[in-house]
Amino acid sequence: MTEPLLEVRDLVKEFPPPRAGLLGRAREPLRAVDGVSFEVAPGDAFGIVGETGSGKSTTARMIARLIDPTSGSIRFGGRDLTGLSRAETKAFRREFAMVFQDPYSSLNPRKTVGSIVAEPLAVHGLHEGRGERRRAVQELMERVGLNPEHYNRLPHEFSGGQRQRVGIARALALDPRLILADEPVSALDVSIQAQILNLLRGLQRDLGLTLVLISHDLSVVRYMCERVAVMREGRIVELAGTTELFAHPREPYTRALLDAVPVPAA
Amino acid sequence: MSPLLDVRDLHVRFATEAGDLRAVDGVSYSVEAGGALGIVGESGSGKSVSSLAVMGLARTRTATVTGEVLFDGRDLLELPEAEMRQVRGNGIAMVFQDPLSSLHPLKRVGFQVAEAVRAHQDVSRAAARARAVELLAMAELPDPARTAAAYPHQLSGGMRQRAMIAMALANEPRLLFADEPTTALDVTVQAQILALLRRLREELGMALVIVTHDLGVIAETAAEVAVMYAGRIVERASTPTIFNAPEHPYTWGLLRSIPRLDVPRETPLVPIDGAPPSMLDRPTGCSFHPRCPHVRDAHRRIDPPLEPAGGDDPSHEVACLLPPATRRELWAKGKAEASR
Questions:
Q1: Fewer CB within 10 A of the terminal residue: chain B, N end or C end?
Q2: Local structure of residue B273 (DSSP, 8 states)
Q3: What whole-number distance in Å separates Cα of residue A139 and Cα of residue B174?
């Protein structure tokens, strides 16, 4: 078997308990993620699906190194992410990229999209020289279906779908091995969602990218991913191949989730 | 029999600094007593603004509302605000997407429901409070007496939406407008709220207009569907027709661009190119023409009216310039391709 690119073991995240008023006694800490383990092979598309409070986003934030786990380990390319030095974290950031939910708040409104996409290149000192960096950025823009001529435009001149493309171009800038997409289409209009899903799927297949997709939407995960983990109350309750999971859910909770999805058919 | 609600040629325009924004551009529909109409559209399609206008909630200085909104034979657009207030919450009630911002954060839920009762009925405080608990029970809130004593922040999103529904039911409205009532909710909670709306409609004989971007929600709640695009209804039919024999390329696009659980996994999503138009600068001719894969030259000039589709469903109307036979062929062809 190939070595997994991402390996999550017994991941736990506790948050300090909410205080019960001024004189409230300390309560138990809140366990948002409670012993989550999974592996993602290189080139695979892995989905994490769950409802509000399932811990899926907290899991994503730990993988992205935005917050520290309380315990457990996250290994990426064989290295444990929890004990990385600053230089090692920077190296990790080259191989790992994130696509966020809201293309409106994740782009700096005062920067041109060209400079937004170029930012990771600048941070890592890649494609030095103005002409060369511009060429690299325009190639990225083209790859995600943006008009490279729009290099100097500001985010507000773009529609929601185009902004999400800008976010994806930025994520691709450093030629990452893994993209973590957290609800990448839930802020978009229905007719635009398919454009972005197909773009992500095409990139994943063409570039051999590994994709970890976090979503509340079962049908999105089914379309995009080869394997799926269903989370509930901080734990993975079921993990299986997509076809198997959707055809023969083993857990009553998975079945309940599937039954709850309204099907657009009469 | 005349319909309960009859909206005729509704226009809503907003005067903005950037120009005249035509949010709703000639919308007509009707709802029978006890009926269930789904209005589906994306952001900017005018689906929410048209509902607000019907409720008399678009009466602002910058908005111009024209047309007729006949409720029970009376034109609501002609009513003075004081009389409109009597209709709103009494004859017609409304439930919005975000229950948290529609509830007063510092007042107990029971008090707010009781207030809705007393706004239209001359009853004592105690009677209104008792009625509030009854209404919360009707909206299937567990332990309604305790819920009545809670503040909105102490309830979950689903419970808050149930409280909003209880409030909407306070005066036994004959028509309920639900604008994206489940969009902010988890899928399991959404299923419960949709089941509740269905049950209430059946038991109380209340008509329902559900406004949503989600075709799945439409399928679960509506008997008839109006598809809105760029401020107009572009297709209307019974719900089975919309899903099985749609004739507008935009409706096809919507149906083919959503991932669904009831089709094989390999079925590719076919996105609609481009983005919805700005309502400040709508395209000439058919407003869908810049995104339509079947566009012909004349479609850039001629603005198609909503006309009977001429098929098996007599209620089926479509605003498309393609010949009906071509439309049916294209839909059948697309369907065959998808299942290959």
A1: N
A2: P
A3: 58
pLDDT mean over B22-45: 94
B264 interface with A at CB cutoff 8 Å: no
Distance separating alpha carbons of residues A262 and B260, to the nearest angstrom: 9
For an interface test with A, the pick among B45, B155, B183, B186 (most A C-beta atoms closer than 10 Å) comes out as B186
Chain B touched by A198 (CB under 8 Å): yes
pLDDT at residue number B102: 84
> What is the rounded distance in angstroms from the CA atom of residue A48 to the CA atom of residue A39?
12
Residue B116 has pLDDT above 90, yes or no: yes
pLDDT at A22 over 60: no
Q: Which of A124-138, A196-210, B44-58, B97-111 has the highest mean pLDDT?
A: A196-210
Q: Using a CB–CB cutoff of 8 Å, tell me whether A195 touches chain B.
A: yes
Please name every residue paired with B5 in a beta bridge, in sequence order, or none if there are none. Answer: B31, B71
Question: In terms of DSSP H, where are the helices of B141-281?
Answer: 144-148, 157-168, 187-204, 215-221, 239-244, 249-257
Chain B residues with CB-CB distance to A184 below 8 A: none
What is the pLDDT, as a whole number, of residue B35? 95
* 3 state DSSP class of A69: coil
b/e code B57-69 from CB counts within 10 Å (16+ = b):
ebeeeebebebeb
Quick check: B100 pLDDT over 80? no
Mean pLDDT of the region A174-192: 92
Tell me the ipTM for this assembly.
Answer: 0.86
DSSP state of A20: -
- B212–A contact, CB cutoff 8 A: no
Helix axes A130-143 and A160-172, enclosed angle (nearest 10): 120
CA distance A262 to chain B (A): 5
Q: Which of A242, A259, A266 sits opposite B265 (nearest CB)?
A: A242
Q: What is the CA radius of gyration of chain B?
A: 21
Q: Do B220 and A266 touch (CB under 8 A)?
A: no
For residue B261, the chain A residues in CB contact (below 8 A) are 218-219, 222, 246, 258, 261, 263
Residue A217: predicted pLDDT: 93
Size of interface A-B (CB pairs under 8 A): 117
CA distance A138 to A149: 8
| Pairwise CA distance, residues B327 & B209, whole Å | 28
Amino acid at B221: T
